[in-house]
């Protein structure tokens, strides 16, 4: 328990507004080995980084459920918790050996089984998780979201958990983690209001108001950060990121956009606390993953390298002319 608590506290401390945690997400052992090898590079921040885990540019590891599903030849919404957990169990010992804390993507926590899911990932070695507020997964912990009538982007059409309901689920997740041996479990609470604006039909002002309301409720419930992103050509705009940072005290997480969008440094200057890339690296050729990851860890922007990645970025709304993320 002491080790998990220390690792969770370390992960939480890395979420610093203006000096964000940067996460090149992984999805299998090959991507993990590629990403963790960055800390062994002579150009890392310390020549002794290989002997002092976490002293290089890579500070933590996070998974991406979309990329895990893609590696299994299925859609994100079809990924069962059993499949997700099996991959987490495969990766966790390697992350531990690299001396880094692990945050995992558990979608919406698989419905009413959220406490069971969190306990299982803690037992596997995770000290943090992304938890979405859109009803995505079946209540059957063995089932994915496919049985639930999946809509746009792998989600049901704009069906959100209620604000208080989701806040309660976050509290339950944190409590379950503590009972499983990880007090201080780090929740990155994801809100998809911007992404699903087209499905909900809400105005920009309504979407922002709900994002702020939900963000504050999730933080009050114990989340470390709240993750926002745009999609389907909408994107997340600079002024929106600025507003969210202001309203939520900087405890904001975002997904890095594609080439031509804001860089890690620019987002850090706005004041966000966490930056990830989601499944984007999984669309690059294996030989390009490390270089792109090093670029973003160094403060740069995400670079589109292959046509498949460009198509994916467009689907996720990361290439909109009006978008920055």
Structural features:
single chain, 325 residues, alpha/beta, TIM Barrel, 8 strands, 40% helix
Short description:
The chain has twelve helices and eight strands.
Explain what this protein looks like in three dimensions.
The radius of gyration is 18 Å and the shape is globular. The model is unreliable at 45-50, 145-154 and 315-323 (pLDDT under 50). Helix 5 links the parallel strand 3 and strand 4. It is of the alpha/beta class and 325 residues long. It is built from twelve helices and eight strands. The chain has one domain (2-315): Phosphoenolpyruvate-binding domains (TIM Barrel, Alpha-Beta Barrel), CATH 3.20.20. The longest helix is centred in the N-terminal third of the chain and has 17 residues, at 81-97. Strands 1-8-7-6-5-4-3-2 form an eight-stranded parallel sheet. It holds the Pfam family PEP_mutase. One of its GO terms (molecular function) is catalytic activity.
Lay out the secondary structure:
Layout: H1 2-13, E1 21-23, H2 29-36, E2 61-62, H3 65-71, H4 81-97, E3 102-105, H5 114-124, E4 128-132, H6 163-179, E5 186-191, H7 197-200, H8 204-220, E6 225-228, H9 238-247, E7 252-255, H10 264-270, E8 274-276, H11 286-297, H12 307-315
Parallel strand pairs: 1-8, 2-3, 3-4, 4-5, 5-6, 6-7, 7-8
């Amino acid at each position: 328990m002491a080790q998990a608590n220390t690792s969770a506290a370390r992960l939480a401390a890395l979420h610093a507004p203006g000096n964000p945690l940067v996460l090149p997400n992984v999805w299998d052992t090959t991507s993990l080995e590629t990403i963790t090898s960055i800390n062994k590079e002579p150009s890392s921040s310390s020549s002794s980084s290989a002997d002092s885990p976490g002293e290089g540019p890579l500070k933590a590891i996070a998974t991406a459920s979309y990329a895990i599903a893609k590696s299994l030849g299925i859609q994100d919404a079809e990924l069962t918790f059993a499949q997700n957990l099996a991959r987490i169990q495969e990766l966790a010992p390697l992350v531990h050996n690299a001396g880094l804390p692990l945050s995992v993507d558990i979608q919406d926590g698989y419905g009413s089984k959220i406490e069971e899911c969190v306990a299982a990932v803690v037992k596997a070695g995770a000290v943090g998780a992304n938890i979405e507020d859109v009803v995505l997964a079946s209540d059957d912990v063995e089932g994915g979201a496919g049985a639930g009538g999946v809509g746009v982007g792998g989600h049901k059409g704009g069906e959100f958990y209620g604000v208080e309901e989701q806040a309660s689920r976050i509290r339950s997740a944190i409590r379950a983690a503590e009972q499983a041996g990880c007090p201080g479990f780090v929740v990155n609470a994801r809100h998809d209001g911007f992404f699903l604006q087209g499905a909900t039909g809400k105005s920009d002002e309504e979407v922002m108001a709900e994002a702020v309301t939900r963000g504050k409720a999730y933080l009050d419930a114990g989340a470390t950060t709240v993750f926002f992103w745009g999609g389907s050509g909408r994107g997340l705009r600079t002024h929106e990121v600025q507003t969210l940072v202001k309203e939520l005290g900087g405890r904001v997480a975002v997904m890095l956009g594609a080439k031509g969008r804001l860089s890690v440094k620019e987002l850090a200057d706005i004041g966000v606390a966490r930056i990830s890339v989601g499944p984007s690296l999984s669309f690059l050729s294996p030989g390009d993953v490390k270089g792109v990851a090093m670029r973003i860890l160094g403060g740069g922007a995400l670079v589109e390298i292959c046509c498949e990645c460009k198509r994916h970025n467009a689907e996720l709304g990361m290439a909109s002319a009006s978008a920055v993320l």
